[in-house]
Amino acid sequence: MNKKWLSIPYALWSLIFSIIPIIIITIYSFCKRSPYGKIIYEFTLDNYKQFLEPIYLNVLWRSILLAAISTTACLVIGYPMAMIISKTSIKKRNVLIMLFVVPLWTNFLLRTYAWMVLLRDQGAINQFLIYLGIIKEPLQLLYNPGAVVMGMVYNFLPFMVLPIYSVLSKMDNSLVEAAQDLGATSGEVFRKVIFPLSMPGVVSGLIMVFMPAVSTFVISDLLGGGQTVLLGNLIQNQFLVARNWQFGSAISMIMMVLILIAIRISSKYQDEEGGGLW
Amino acid sequence: MVRKLFKRGYATLVYLFLYLPIFFLILYSFNDSKYRGKWNGFTLRWYEELLKDRAIMEALYNTFMIALLAAIISTIVGTISAIAIHKMSSKWKVVFMNVTYIPVMNPDIVIGISLLALFVSLNMRLGFVTLLLAHITFNIPYVILAVLPKLKQLNPYLEEAALDLGATPMYAFFKVILPEIMPGVITGALLAFTLSLDDFMVSFFTTGSGVNTLSIRVYSMTKVGVSPKINALSTVLFLGVLVLLILLQKREKNLNE
Q1: How far is A56 from chain B (nearest CA, A)?
Q2: Over 90: is that where the pLDDT of A85 sits?
Q3: A236 and B109: CB-CB below 8 Å?
Q4: Is the separation of the CB atoms in A20 and B99 below 8 Å?
Q5: Which ipTM score applies to this complex?
Q6: Sorting pLDDT into bands at 50, 70 and 90, what band is B62?
Q7: Hey, what CATH class is A52-267 in?
Q8: Can you tell me the distance from the alpha carbon of B226 to that of B8, in angstroms, rounded to the nearest whole number?
């Protein structure tokens, strides 16, 4: 039976709301700007050249660095966690996984805001440390790159744990037993059997953490306090404050290319089947 | 033994990290002081004032209304599209799947600004409608990705059998196919609803003045100080989610037994 016409609504929807918007910002990124900020439809590379100025390259470098640190931290913290959960009994497992999902259902902004309250000078953490006598003066915990990284790890850790867990829990345990029977130490079993087999989950996790981390502007805005400008902050500023949509579009294009490269690199290590959330 | 203790300690620490901010969010909703960090005694005042706050209630209404509408529309469009994609030749399938992955793989901020650019060039007034359109756009792919695996598991002869026995295509769809793929449809709908509820980035760029969602309201508040009313609201929402989850788990257990 012919059901081709069923795809027409979606084809139209995608064309209008997914493809054309990207074409629009691609065009904008090559457009000139009038003295009053209006878009002039003449070809130019100025917007991309502007990005090569040291201040903007610094922002690019900082965004990549902080996102890379957060992604690594999520992997280091999340992998053992996924392993621990996958080894517990099925009944317990569901509860433990649910506990990772529940925070995702409280509003993302509220969660980040809660850290603002915890980390500030009169916040609970400083008060607790002073109470214990470890410090006398409150530590400056908020408004620095460390706070931004922490906010990223906090918000995106579930995206690392869930795909790795889903691969580990489906893994054929007889392979691990076979390796052990053949005399592999537990370190070797992990390095040569468990970790390679869990690679699809790891790759999904890396992509799912790196992408929101490199493009966020909320976390850097709230926890970095305007000190830590990232690509996301730059785009938001160009679109809503500076009203230079051409430059904002150019930065967005650069970010998209960056993410595509990151996906390309990491999916090299992913096997055919693809793992992850689906 | 030591290893087991170590594992337990590690897991506890990670969960502590996850729930510490939520705990304090809830704690401060009962604090009788406008300035946090100081405990001034227990109160339910913020819950009372929350109900009277029209701006927050309106934001809450918008958030749920958009999430609900976006979830319903994207589930219908997404399910139909998944069926269409499932029946395509492999060449077209690749094209459609690549298109489907655009909103999944694009960072939210790019979805936000590119839709803003579209709406502005179409001269549309930013507000409820543009928000809804944006939410449907980023929801549909997740519905498709949730329904497709169920279609792959479906026995292809099932529909033929129904048609041979004289069912109209519509009847066959509602009585044979839909019940089989229902778990995927429900997963997709729930996913769409949650994504919509939690979204900030796309909403931030595609809404106009006057129409707030909860996330946008909280964001603008963080600049001048968030009222404890918001803490009260998040406590109610959090407990709501928790109760819903426990009920769902119970139901599943009953069904399994």
Answers
A1: 18
A2: yes
A3: yes
A4: no
A5: 0.85
A6: very high
A7: mainly alpha
A8: 36
| DSSP code of residue B177 | I
| Distance separating alpha carbons of residues A126 and B76, to the nearest angstrom | 50
B77–chain A nearest CA distance, Å: 7
Does B257 score more than 70 pLDDT? no
Q: Residue A55 corresponds to which tokens in the numbers above?
A: 């201040």
Tell me what pLDDT residue A3 has. 67
Q: The tokens of B117 are what?
A: 């650019």
Q: Label residues A10-40 b or e (16+ Cβ within 10 Å = b).
A: bbebbeebbebbbebbeebbbbebeeeeebe
pLDDT of residue A29: 94
Answer yes or no: do A10 and B84 touch at CB < 8 A: yes
What angle (nearest 5°) sits at the alpha carbon of residue A182, between those of residues A180 and A188?
55
pLDDT of B148 reads: 92
In the three-class reduction of DSSP (H, G, I as helix; E, B as strand; rest coil), residue A39 is classed as strand
- Which CATH code for domain B54-226? 1.10.3720.10
Q: Do A252 and B114 touch (CB under 8 A)?
A: yes
Cα–Cα–Cα angle for B109, B113, B115, nearest 5°?
Answer: 115
Nearest-CB residue to A109 (from B105, B113, B219): B219
A275 pLDDT band (50/70/90 cuts)? very low
Q: How many other C-beta atoms lie within 10 A of the C-beta of residue B244? A: 11
As a dihedral over the C-alpha atoms of residue B135, residue B140, residue B142, residue B148, rounded to 10 degrees, the angle is 170
User: Which residue of chain A comes nearest to B239, CA vs CA?
Assistant: A106
Q: What is the DSSP letter of A138?
A: P
How far apart are the C-alpha atoms of A218 and A228, rounded to whole Å? Answer: 11
What CA–CA distance (Å, rounded) separates A254 from A64? Answer: 12
Instruction: Specify the range with the lowest mean pLDDT, choosing from A90-94, A166-170, B130-134.
Output: A90-94
Residues B107, A122: C-beta atoms closer than 8 Å:
no
Enter the tokens of residue B94: 């690749």
Average pLDDT value for residue range A5-20: 91
Does the distance separating the beta carbons of A252 and B109 come in below 8 Å? yes
Q: Tens digit of pLDDT for each residue in B12-50?
A: 999 999 999 888 888 888 888 766 556 778 888 889 988
A276 pLDDT exceeds 50?
A: no
**pTM score, whole prediction:** 0.87
**How is chain A split into domains, by residue range?**
52-267
Over the stretch A109-119, which tens digit does the pLDDT of each residue have?
Answer: 888 888 888 88
Q: Which residue of B has its CA nearest to A104?
A: B198
List the single residue in B with minimal CA-CA distance to A216: B109
Q: Which residues in chain A are closer than 8 Å to B230, comparing Cβ atoms?
A: 110
The answer for A 113-142 residues in CB contact with B (under 8 A) is 113-118, 120, 122-124, 127
Token pair in block for residue A18: 């997914």
Contact B24 A154 (CB under 8 A): no
